[in-house]
């Protein structure tokens, strides 16, 4: 993991982790059209903001469409995944730090 550098996360998905603070962190995630972020969950609270494009999230069994200018709150320990309906970019904020991504 390298801070402030794009790295492959999933097929068609790259991410850039910015310098974290003491208790929160920020990450940009770019998706090719049709790319998916697999269903997962983590103990961290997450806010996501759509910088560009359009995506459909599955959050706790509910479908939510997010497009440029929209934001979404994902509570801690809630299963979620995403599929890009077109080329898209998100800005994710996590608290506390995602130590699993910082290693």
Automatic annotation (TrEMBL):
CDD domains: cupin_KdgF. Signal peptide: none annotated. Residues 28-93 form the Cupin type-2 domain. Pfam families: Cupin_2. This is Cupin. It comes from Gracilibacillus halophilus YIM-C55.5.
